[in-house]
Automatic annotation (TrEMBL):
Family to which this protein belongs: Belongs to the TDE1 family.
Sample GO molecular function, one term: phospholipid scramblase activity
Protein encoded by which gene: Serinc3
Keywords on record: Membrane, Transmembrane, Transmembrane helix
Protein name: Serine incorporator 3
Membrane topology: Multi-pass membrane protein
Membrane-crossing residue ranges in chain numbering: 6-28, 40-58, 97-117, 129-151, 157-180, 201-227, 239-257, 406-427, 447-466
Pfam families on file: Serinc (PF03348)
Domain of life: Eukaryota
UniProt feature coiled coil, ranges: none
Cellular localisation: Membrane
A single cellular component GO annotation: plasma membrane
Gene Ontology annotations of biological process type: antiviral innate immune response; positive regulation of endoplasmic reticulum stress-induced intrinsic apoptotic signaling pathway
């Protein structure tokens, strides 16, 4: 009897998986906007794909992947520097699985990016596909994943590595925009509360967070000089750290100039402090891909050195390799990779719950002047379903709250960023016989950090240059 009731209970969810986001919310959930719920579901799908990718890099799963018929045969042989594995195929399957899982996710979101071009309101038939039919969309992703495991190696891997590097670079820029918007949102919220309540309390909170980010940035920079440079070498690292420190100080000064404050009152040191910390993170991330291990200690060896001062310095020639697997089953994720994944999750969730009104992200994601930013519309007869209040209110009947197409493009690039981060930005050689870190990944990340600083500088000076445009 219990089994029968369970089947009927499960069957009752099938219509929900084919309808809109409102059906997926339980009665205890607060009434939410359909635009927000939909983005959260897509974000959950992407995070789920990230978790599966991380699992594929574990030793036990890699052992099981070898048993898939044909998955190891006819492929290329991969060897990671400083890693000794019993079988070369053990390294191959982890990378191969991550590439194929994120290939499926990226293809899915890219297809939806094209499908959702020029959607203006929820009345468009394509909006129903975007906001509903979850069962079919999840089934499509799983189907693409299964099929991708049968794609042969060779040219697929080289082409997809280049695509991954380009998509990951673009997502780094998106992260910058989201972080700046997050800082703007905090700054605006605190300023409003200063005007409404106790100004000293909120001014202290604003000053505390700004100081915290700058202190962390200084500590970060000092650690980079200590562990990633040597008196007699590592010239590139010295230049990278010094240049980005100078650039960060410059944009911080520019952000508080009287002319900038006059035209861009929302700018300030809080945003600059976050950008400074993010730039130093990109600098560190770039240096972790250097082929010269004497200038690229593993994070594990740095932590060991900090916790055990008697150990030889982490930047000596006897340091631990940058990639250290937990066993001989293959390459596992580095501790370095979790920093990138953490920033990714924060930015993804923020982009999903951020209100569109008064947002810098809006200027990036809205589809143009035809789009309409709506206020809170949570009442009316249409907000009921079967006599009960709708758990997700359709707030896009008159105009979308964000560009559907660009949102899917962002998720497509995010999946490529995940792929590159989990595989430590390693690239296969021309004959696909090994993967290794190289200077290309270093320069891509360093170039991204400089472009991010230029983009932030442009947001500060643009109101002075383009006086005819509204930047409020």
């Amino acid at each position: 009897m219990g089994a029968v009731l369970g089947v009927f209970s499960l069957a009752s969810w099938v219509p929900c998986l084919c309808s809109g986001a409102s059906c997926l919310l339980c009665s205890c959930c607060p009434i939410s906007k359909n635009s927000t719920v939909t983005r959260l579901i897509y974000a959950f799908i992407l995070i789920l794909g990230t978790i599966v990718s991380c699992i594929m890099m574990t030793d036990g799963i890699q052992t099981q992947l070898k048993k898939i018929p044909g998955f190891c045969e006819g492929g290329f042989q991969i060897k990671v520097p400083d890693i000794k594995a019993e079988k070369d195929c053990d390294v191959l399957v982890g990378f191969k699985a991550v590439y194929r899982i994120n290939f499926a996710v990226a293809i899915f979101f890219f297809a939806f990016c094209l499908l959702m071009l020029k959607v203006k309101t929820s009345k468009d038939p394509r909006a129903a596909i975007h906001n509903g039919f979850w069962f079919f969309k999840i089934a499509a992703i799983i189907g693409i994943m299964v099929g991708s495991f049968y794609i042969p190696g060779g040219h697929f891997t080289s082409v997809w590595f280049v695509a991954g590097m380009m998509g990951a670079t673009f997502f780094i820029f998106i992260q910058l925009v989201l972080l700046v918007d997050m800082a703007h949102s905090w700054n605006e919220s605190w300023v409003n509360r200063m005007e409404e309540g106790n100004p000293r309390l909120w001014y202290a909170a604003l000053l505390s967070f700004t100081s915290l980010f700058y202190i962390l940035s200084i500590i970060f920079a000092v650690l980079l000089y200590i562990f990633y440079t040597r008196p007699d070498g590592c010239t590139e690292n010295k230049v990278f750290i010094s240049l980005n420190l100078i650039f960060c100080v410059a944009v911080s000064i520019v952000s508080i100039l009287s002319k900038i404050q006059e035209h861009q009152p929302r700018s300030g040191l809080l945003q600059s402090s976050i950008i400074t910390l993010y730039t130093l993170y990109l600098t560190w991330s770039a240096m972790t891909n250097e082929p010269d291990r004497s200038c690229n200690p593993s994070l594990r060896s740095i932590i060991t050195h900090l916790t055990s001062p008697t150990v030889s310095p982490a930047n000596s020639t006897t340091l631990a390799p940058a990639s250290t697997p937990s066993s001989q089953n293959g390459h596992s994720m580095n501790l370095d990779d979790f920093g990138g994944l953490t920033i990714f999750v924060i930015c993804l969730i923020y982009s999903s719950i951020r209100t569109s009104s008064n947002s810098q992200v809006n200027k990036l994601t809205l589809s143009g002047s035809d789009s309409v930013i709506l206020g809170d519309t949570t009442n009316g007869a249409s907000d009921e379903e079967d006599g009960q209040p709708r758990r997700a209110v359709d707030n896009e009947k008159e105009g979308v709250q964000y560009s559907y197409s660009f949102f899917h493009w962002m998720l497509c690039c995010a999946s490529l960023y995940i792929m590159m981060t989990i595989t430590s930005w390693y690239s296969p050689d021309a004959k696909f016989q090994k993967v290794s870190s190289n200077w290309l990944a270093v320069w891509v990340k360093m170039g991204s950090s400089w472009v991010c600083l230029l983009l932030y500088l442009w947001t500060l000076v643009a109101p002075l240059i383009l006086t005819g445009r509204d930047f409020s």
